[in-house]
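Structure in, sequence out. Go:
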C-alpha cells in the first residue's frame, strides 16, 4: 500500500514537470502594435456660454471723443531753386507816366496838360521803297492827335523829350530808318538781312528832344537787298510808336 502511494507521487511529479516543459516550449512570439485608426467624427456643439461682463462706464457711453488739435509744425527747409522759365513775348509800349515836379512830386496840372502819344500800323504788303516816307493805315492810339495818318508825320505840339520806336515783321530782308527835324536832319537806319525767307522782326528806337512844330517820320532804305526782295509782296507789318517823356518848356 505504501509502495503504491509513492509511485503515484512520482508519477504526479513527472506529469507536473512535463506540463511545465510543454507550456514553456509552446509560447509564441510577441505581436506588433496595430495601425492608428481613422479620425473620429466631430463632437456635438457644446452648450452656450455664460453672458460676458458689462463694459466700463467710459466705454459704454459711446466712442471716444476727438482730441484737441495739435500745434502747427515748424516750417520745413526751402526747396531747391527751379529752372529759369522761357522769356515772354515783348509787350506793347506803355502810356507815358505823369510829369513830376522839380521837387520830385507829381504835378497834376502838368500831367493833365502835356500829353502826346501815338501807335500806328502799316499793313501794306508792298516793300518800303528807298527814301520814301511810310504811310500807315490803322491807328491804335493817337492822343491828342499829333500824328497825321494821311501824311505819316508826327508833329511836335509840346516841346520836350520824346521816345520813338518801331517793330517790323516780314519774311525778307528789310531796312528802315527814323528821321526827324531835331535841329539838323537826323536819320537812324536799321537793317536785318534774312537769307532763309523765314519770319523775322526788325526793331529800332531813339530818344529825341523836339522843338514845337518839328516833325518825325519813317522811311524805307535800299541797302544790300536784291531786286527780288524789293519786289516782294508777302505779308509785312510795321508798328510805329512815340510818346512824350517830359516837356522842356
Amino acid at each position: 500500500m505504501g509502495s503504491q502511494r509513492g509511485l503515484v507521487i512520482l508519477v504526479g511529479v513527472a506529469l507536473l514537470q512535463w506540463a511545465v516543459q510543454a507550456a514553456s516550449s509552446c509560447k509564441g512570439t510577441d505581436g506588433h502594435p496595430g495601425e492608428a485608426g481613422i479620425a473620429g467624427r466631430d463632437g456635438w456643439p457644446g452648450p452656450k456660454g455664460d453672458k460676458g461682463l458689462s463694459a466700463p462706464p467710459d466705454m459704454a457711453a459711446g466712442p471716444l471723443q476727438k482730441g484737441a488739435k495739435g500745434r502747427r509744425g515748424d516750417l520745413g527747409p526751402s526747396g531747391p531753386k527751379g529752372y529759369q522759365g522761357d522769356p515772354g513775348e515783348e509787350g506793347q509800349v506803355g502810356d507815358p507816366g505823369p510829369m513830376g515836379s522839380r521837387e520830385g512830386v507829381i504835378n497834376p496840372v502838368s500831367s493833365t496838360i502835356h500829353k502826346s502819344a501815338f501807335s500806328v500800323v502799316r499793313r501794306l504788303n508792298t516793300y518800303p521803297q528807298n527814301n520814301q516816307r511810310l504811310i500807315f493805315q490803322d491807328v491804335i492810339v493817337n492822343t491828342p492827335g499829333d500824328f497825321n495818318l494821311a501824311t505819316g508825320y508826327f508833329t511836335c505840339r509840346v516841346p520836350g523829350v520824346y521816345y520813338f520806336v518801331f517793330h517790323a515783321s516780314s519774311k525778307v530782308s528789310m531796312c528802315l530808318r527814323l528821321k526827324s527835324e531835331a535841329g539838323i536832319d537826323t536819320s537812324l537806319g536799321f537793317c536785318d538781312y534774312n537769307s532763309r525767307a523765314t519770319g523775322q522782326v526788325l526793331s529800332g528806337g531813339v530818344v529825341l528832344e523836339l522843338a514845337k512844330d518839328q516833325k518825325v517820320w519813317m522811311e524805307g532804305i535800299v541797302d544790300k537787298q536784291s531786286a527780288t526782295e524789293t519786289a516782294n509782296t508777302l505779308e509785312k507789318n510795321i508798328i510805329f510808336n512815340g510818346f512824350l517823356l517830359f516837356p522842356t518848356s
